Amino acid sequence: MNLTDHLEVLEDLHHDLGKYICFESRFVEENATDSDLRTALCTDIFETRRGSDGVLTAWQVWERLRPPSLEDREEIRTIDRALVRLSELNLKDDSAPRSALLEARALCQAVAASTRSLLKVARGVGHG
Amino acid sequence: MAEILVIDDQDRTLNLCKRVMPEHDWRGPARSWKEAEEALARPPEAVLLDLHFEIGVEDLIGLPEEPSPAQIRKVRQRQGIHILEALRERWPDLPVVLMTARGEGLEQAFDDRQAEEYTYFLDNEQLDSAALRGLVARVVEASRGAERDGPVYWGRTPTLRRIRQRLEVLARGRLPVVLGGATGTGKSLIARHFIHPKSGRKGRFISVDLATIPKDLVASQLFGSTRGSFTGAVADRKGAFEEADGGTLFLDEVGNLPEDVQRMLLTVLQERALSRIGESKERAVDVKLVVATHEDLAARVREGTFRADLYMRLNPAATVRLPPLSERLGDLESLITFTVGRLSEEGALMDLAKERLGSSDPVQLRALLRSDLPDRRPGTLYFLFPERTIRELRRHRWPGNLRELALSVENALNLSLAEAIDAGRGPSAVGERPDVVQVRPKLVRDLLQALGEPEEPSPPSANVTPKDGLILPIRISPQGGLGKLAQDVERQYFTALYLRHEGDFTAMAADLLGESDGGRKVQLRFNQLGLKVRELKDRQR
Question: Which pTM value belongs to this model?
Answer without folding.
Answer: 0.56
